[in-house]
Structures are given as structure tokens and as C-alpha cells.
Amino acid sequence: MANEMKLDIRNYKDVENWTIAAAESIIMNIKMMYSLQDEVNLLLSGGSTPGPIYKILDQDLGSFKRLTIGLVDERFVPTNHEHSNEKLIKKCFDSRPAEEYNIEGMVKDAENEWENLKLVREAYAPFKNRTDIIVLGMGDDGHTASIFPNDLESDEVITNGQIDIFSTKAPVTPTNRITCSMDLICNARHIYLLISGQEKLGVLKGDYQYPIHTVLEKRPDVQIYYLEK
């Protein structure tokens, strides 16, 4: 059960300290990876919560030449759509000319979902081979990435054992989603989970088995940054 897990939760009462602490830890791991290898692969989640953390990464990392940024998941919408995770993340990483960033989106063909999935699977080969750091979020329903409870496609993504990219269905619009598989997520070297609010903490510590709990069971070393609010 979820409440029997030993969770690595770092608690913060104010958003500034939470933001700085999470950003500094991610930056430290990126720089450590730089000392060990030529390139670092970083997968980021969308949403408004991690935006300020990404802004600090943008300001404090001296160079992005050795860093490839991908998405944990995406809505199958055009890249200029208001719900696009790619659009949001690119707004966070904007202190330099766009050509200085290597940001790999998940929508290559907004007209054909299956052709798009094929293209993304090819483009995400480096992340499938090795993901150094991944930043996750969690919904009130216990979903993480675009892996949802009560979705047959998500169930397959959890259990198929494949390190790949898949399509799933969300319970809210836009319903068509693209996501890293459970095994791709759990194979990352360092995993961060960013959550805020008592409701989400209750879900995290609750008895029901949600997709986020599968991550925590497979990877009890997930660093959870929790903001009280």
C-alpha cells in the first residue's frame, strides 16, 4: 500500500524556498553528469507548477550546448496551442536565442496521431537509450506523465515493460496524449516529483494504487519536493 512506502519527501512551507531547493538540486545533478559524460538528457513535465524552477535552470546553467531537453508527456495539439507543454517549456527557456537550446518536442505531425507517434519514437531514441534526469508532476487523480487511472492504454503503458513512447487517453480535454512509458520513466538515473497542496499529499500517501505509486514502488529513491499551501 502507498502509505506503507518509505517516501523521500522534502517539505517546504513557502514557494520561494521550494522553488530554489528543487532547482539547485536539479542543477547540481546536471553539473555532476557533465563531469562524467559529454551530454545530459533531461525530461521535463509541463504545467504551471514547475515553471519557476525551469526559469532558474535557464538562468543558472551556463550553457545548454551539452543538454538535451525533452518532454515527459504532451497533449496531441499543435505546438502553438494554449495547452501545449512544448510551448510552455520553451517560454521558460527563453533567456538565450532559440538556436542555443536543444528542446525536443513530442508533436511532429499534428494532423496524424499515428505518424506522429512514429516520428516521436525516432526522435526520442537518445532518451530511450539514457535519461539522466526526469522531473515528474502528479494530478489529483494520482496520474503522472500522461499515465492515467481507469484508462486501458495507460494500463498497457504501465505493464508492457517497454522503454518507449505511447499514446494514451486523458479523462479531460484534450484527451489524446503522448507519454513516456512507465519503464522509460523508472529507468532514469535521477527522478524528481514536484507536488503541492494537502490534497495531492493525501493522494500520494493514500491506500489506493495509482500510476504514481507504481513509479514509487519501482523507484523508492524518487526525490519528492512538497510545497505546503
Largest sheet: 7 strands, parallel
Helices, by number, come to 9
Strand residue content: 15-25%
Query: Low-confidence segments, ≥5 residues, pLDDT <50?
Result: none
Task: Determine the CATH topology.
Answer: Rossmann fold
CATH class: Alpha Beta
Structural class: alpha/beta
Report what the structure shows.
With 229 residues, the chain is of the alpha/beta class. Helix 1 crosses helix 2 (51-60). The protein is 37% helix and 21% strand. Strand 2, helix 2 (51-60) and strand 3 (67-71) form a beta-alpha-beta unit. The model has no long low-confidence stretch (mean pLDDT 96). The protein has a single domain, classed as Rossmann fold, CATH 3.40.50. The protein has nine helices and ten strands. Strands 1-10-9-6-2-3-5 form a seven-stranded parallel beta sheet, with helices on both faces. It is globular, with a radius of gyration of 17 Å. The longest helix is centred in the N-terminal third of the chain and has 22 residues, at 15-36.
Lay out the secondary structure.
Elements: E1 8-12, H1 15-36, E2 40-44, H2 51-60, E3 67-71, E4 73-75, H3 85-92, E5 102-104, H4 113-123, H5 125-129, E6 133-136, H6 152-159, E7 165-169, E8 176-180, H7 182-186, E9 190-196, H8 198-205, H9 211-218, E10 223-227
Parallel strand pairs: 1-10, 2-3, 2-6, 3-5, 6-9, 9-10
Antiparallel strand pairs: 4-8, 7-8
Helix pairs in contact: 1-2
